[in-house]
């Protein structure tokens, strides 16, 4: 890999969430832990169904102790409005049907306190092949976005209309990235009426809820234990960062401001060794970028296009090089794919062998 190529590539720093499995004592800057790792302090649910096992919040049903209906473990310390929520989950079917279903409620409300029943937006998950990652509204409008969809929810003549305006990923590829009966990382971002969900670095839905009479602006968080066959669901590393109200109007260019490092780079189907990327330091200020590192120095500008699917990026270096790219943004990590050597803008986030694409993942630098 030529250093000049690396210099051109690094200027695309944008973020795509890549949460790591962290303990309550290692929560990322700006985040608050919601679980102490020991007991259910701060949470309320059916004690016959919810406990802490192996350092994780655990919901479990058995033939002798079933859930009579969908029931929830409710976080008692707030009703967040705009936020980024990160957690890890694991689902295990304890039955011969392969059934296990759960979800995380957000901007929700308690509808039956005696039975810990909640309604509202739900980041869905299951042991099956279809629903993990969808946006569902429990005791409300039902499925609001299938996996891989970009949706605008509208009201037409008094009824909900789901307008599928694009694609954020392939449902089968999202499914293939899930770890069966193992830990998966989930991210939920609620920013104004814009809702995004990610699992294992992949965006699963992108929803704008314009049905004002139904769109929740704030509400509780809760964990679901679904009625049905015996199953176990576990959660850990639950942490939240509250976003200021003004952030609802923030642009992607606002979100990429600051200092960045490169986590991964793929060229011609192969990953570049991490030590070749370690020294690179990227700074973005307004629409200008600067990149410095061992034997690397680059300056230029970037332009972001948020209205396209995928979102577009145009990079212009001081030496006149132009790089069309696509990007995906959320949190403190990035995914961006660039076209090299005059190739057209990429359509997918990959850099196969023999292609003129370069696929990079970046993470924000923390002090």
What number of structural domains do the residues give? 2
Average pLDDT number? 89
Which residue ranges are poorly predicted, with pLDDT under 50 across at least 5 consecutive positions?
1-25
What would CATH call the architecture of the largest domain?
A: Sandwich
Report the biggest beta sheet as strand number plus sense, adding barrel if it closes: 10 strands, mixed
Proportion of residues in β-strands: over 45%
Number of strands: 26
How would you describe this protein?
The model is unreliable at about 1-25 (pLDDT under 50). This protein has about 375 residues and is mainly beta. It has helices at about 5-10, 170-175, 250-255; strands at about 30-35, 45, 50-55, 55-60, 70-75, 85-95, 100-110, 115-125, 135-140, 140-145, 150-155, 160-165, 185-190, 195-200, 200-210, 220-225, 230-240, 260-265, 270, 280-285, 290-295, 295-305, 310-315, 320-330, 335-340, 355-365. It is built from 3 helices and 26 strands.
Features:
mainly beta, 3 helices, eight-stranded antiparallel β-barrel, Jelly Rolls, 367 residues, ten-stranded mixed β-sheet
């Amino acid at each position: 890999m030529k250093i000049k190529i690396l210099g051109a590539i690094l200027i695309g720093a944008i973020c795509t969430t890549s949460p790591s499995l962290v303990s309550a004592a290692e929560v990322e800057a700006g985040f608050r832990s919601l679980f102490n790792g020991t007991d259910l302090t701060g949470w309320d649910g059916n004690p016959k169904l919810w406990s802490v096992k192996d350092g994780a919040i655990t919901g479990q049903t058995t033939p002798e102790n079933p859930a009579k209906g969908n029931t929830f473990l409710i976080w008692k310390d707030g009703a967040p409005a705009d936020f980024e929520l990160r957690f890890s989950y694991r689902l295990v079917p304890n039955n011969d049907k392969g059934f296990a279903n759960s979800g995380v409620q957000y901007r929700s409300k308690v509808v039956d306190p005696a039975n810990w029943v909640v309604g509202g937006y739900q980041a869905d998950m299951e042991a099956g092949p279809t629903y993990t990652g969808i946006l569902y509204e429990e005791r409300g409008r039902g499925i609001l976005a299938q996996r891989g969809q970009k949706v605008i929810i509208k009201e037409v003549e008094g009824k909900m209309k789901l307008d599928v305006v694009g694609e954020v990923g392939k449902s089968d590829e999202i499914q293939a990235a899930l770890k069966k009966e193992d830990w998966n990382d989930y991210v939920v971002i609620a920013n104004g009426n814009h809702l995004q969900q990610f699992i294992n670095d992949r965006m699963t839905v992108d929803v704008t809820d314009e049905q004002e009479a139904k769109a929740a602006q704030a509400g509780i968080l809760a964990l679901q234990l679904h009625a049905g066959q015996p199953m176990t669901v576990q959660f850990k590393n639950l942490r939240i960062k509250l976003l200021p109200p003004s952030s609802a109007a923030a642009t992607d260019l606002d979100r990429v401001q600051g200092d960045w490092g490169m986590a991964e780079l793929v060229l011609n189907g192969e990953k570049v060794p991490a030590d070749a990327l370690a020294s690179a330091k990227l700074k973005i200020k307004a629409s200008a970028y600067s990149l410095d590192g061992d034997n690397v120095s680059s300056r230029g500008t970037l332009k972001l296009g948020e209205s396209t699917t995928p979102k577009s990026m145009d990079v212009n270096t001081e030496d006149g090089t132009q790089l069309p790219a696509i990007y995906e943004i959320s949190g403190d990590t990035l995914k961006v794919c660039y076209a090299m050597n005059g190739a057209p803008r990429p359509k997918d986030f990959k850099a196969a062998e023999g292609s003129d694409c370069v696929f990079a993942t970046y993470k924000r630098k923390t002090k």
